[in-house]
Design brief:
Layout: H1 25-35, H2 39-58, E1 69-71, E2 77-81, H3 84-92, E3 96-99, H4 104-120, E4 126-132, E5 137-142, H5 148-158, E6 164-167, E7 178-180, E8 185-188, E9 191-194, E10 197-200, E11 206-210, E12 220-223, E13 226-234, E14 241-242, E15 246-250, E16 254-256, E17 259-260, E18 269-270, E19 282-287, E20 291-306, E21 314-324, E22 334-337, E23 340-348, E24 360-367, H6 368-375, E25 378-379
Parallel strand pairs: 2-3, 5-6, 7-16, 14-21
Antiparallel strand pairs: 1-2, 4-5, 8-9, 10-11, 10-25, 11-15, 12-13, 13-15, 17-18, 19-20, 19-22, 20-21, 21-24, 22-23, 23-24
Length: 382
């Protein structure tokens, strides 16, 4: 058994019934002590609950669903109901009604789906979950530490929106949404790129703006072993005249932060816009392989021929040219000048040998403002 859970047996022996009553005296006394009331008040409380439950049992129809019943702090039996006519019927019988956002059947289905997910991969950092009619939600209780499996479970739980609440040990609601910083490593298949910029499309959906060659085959993207996005569109195709920009849809429960990670080289850099910096401007980039490197922009509207092992040569046009050093795996990662996002790593010379923040090389980046304009996106800013 997990810590904090005990089997429903233990003490032996039988308690005697309360004199002149239907309840066992030991039970009444224990209840009174736990509530800080007299034994007589405890009996009145039990009688009230029994009467109201009898009324509920006498009702018929979908509005009288015992799964949706709960006692409020005043001791009134309350039923969650779907509409005003149902509420009037319940209140006419002497009970309390509340029009709720979710039916018992809906919450039970959400809970069953979480059970199936947990059976496939047990979320050890999640203490438990179940339907709470008073909260009108499936409540998920989490511990202090969560694993990658836990995060996948919680992301699924939070995908149900208002039907689920995630709470910590103190009972307070917590968000288990994953925040990913641009420049972090993102894996797909046997390869990896770097996380680019977050943005919103015209419908308000969150997308990842990245190098097109990172999402050429619409791959599933993973961060620290957990799925966080899926490639959706690209202007890059091997063996063609290409533009190296693309997008991925971001999972519910994941946020692409508006601050760029610097891999330990000072604080994260907050991005407040995408105004293009002129040639000659200082610029830095973040990537999963060479990490945080800086230099200057040399020119724009540059064309380059890429040669990848096992792939035909590809012409890529309209990239920026820089002496910032980059390496394989940095692709898609963010570039920034001051507080303005500049682009996503596209590629670099194969003989680059990055040596610290200011190690020089030859590199190319896809301009961020071009991608935002082409796809009609609004950059996520700090």
């Amino acid at each position: 058994m997990a810590a904090g859970a005990v089997p429903a047996h233990g003490a032996s022996g039988e308690a005697s019934p309360a004199p002149g009553g239907q309840y066992q005296q030991d039970m009444v006394h224990a209840l009174a002590g736990s509530l800080g009331i007299s034994d007589a008040a405890a009996v009145q409380r039990l009688d009230s609950q029994a009467r109201q439950q009898a009324v509920l049992a006498s009702l018929r129809g979908p509005a009288a669903d015992s799964r949706a019943a709960w006692f409020d702090r005043a001791g009134r039996l309350t039923l969650n109901v779907p509409d005003a006519p149902s509420a009037r019927r319940i209140e006419a019988a002497g009970l309390k009604a509340r029009i709720s956002a979710h039916t018992s059947g809906e919450l039970d289905r959400v809970k069953a789906e979480l059970d199936r997910l947990a059976a496939a991969a047990v979320p050890t950092g999640v203490r438990g979950w179940g339907v709470d009619p008073a909260a009108d939600k499936v409540v998920v209780q989490v511990g202090d530490e969560v694993t990658a499996t836990d995060r996948a479970f919680l992301a699924k739980a939070e995908s149900y929106g208002s039907a689920v609440a995630v709470r910590g040990d103190g009972g307070k609601s917590v968000s288990m949404a994953t925040t990913i910083y641009p420049g972090s490593r993102m894996d797909y298949g046997n390869h990896y790129c770097s996380v680019g910029f977050g943005a919103k499309d015209s419908s308000g959906r969150q997308v990842l703006v990245t190098a097109g060659h990172c999402v050429e085959s619409s791959p599933d993207l993973y961060f620290n072993g957990t799925h966080f996005a899926k490639g959706t569109t690209t202007r890059f195709h091997h063996g063609r005249d290409s533009i190296d920009m693309g997008l991925a849809s971001v999972d519910n429960g994941t946020t692409i932060a508006p601050q760029i990670g610097t891999w330990g080289n000072g604080a994260n850099v907050a991005v407040s816009g995408s105004r293009r910096a002129p040639a000659g401007s200082d610029v830095c980039k973040s990537g999963a392989t060479s990490h945080w490197t800086c230099g200057s922009i040399k020119s724009y509207n540059y064309s380059v021929t890429y040669t990848d092992p096992g792939q035909p040569a590809t012409l890529v046009t309209n990239v920026g040219l820089s002496d910032v050093c980059d390496l394989g795996g940095d692709s898609g990662g963010p570039w920034v000048s001051g507080n303005q996002g500049q682009g996503m790593t596209s590629g670099g010379q194969t003989d680059n040998q990055c040596d610290g923040v200011y190690g020089e090389g030859v590199s190319y980046f896809e301009p961020l403002d071009d991608a935002l304009q082409y796809y009609g996106l609004r950059l996520t800013t700090a």
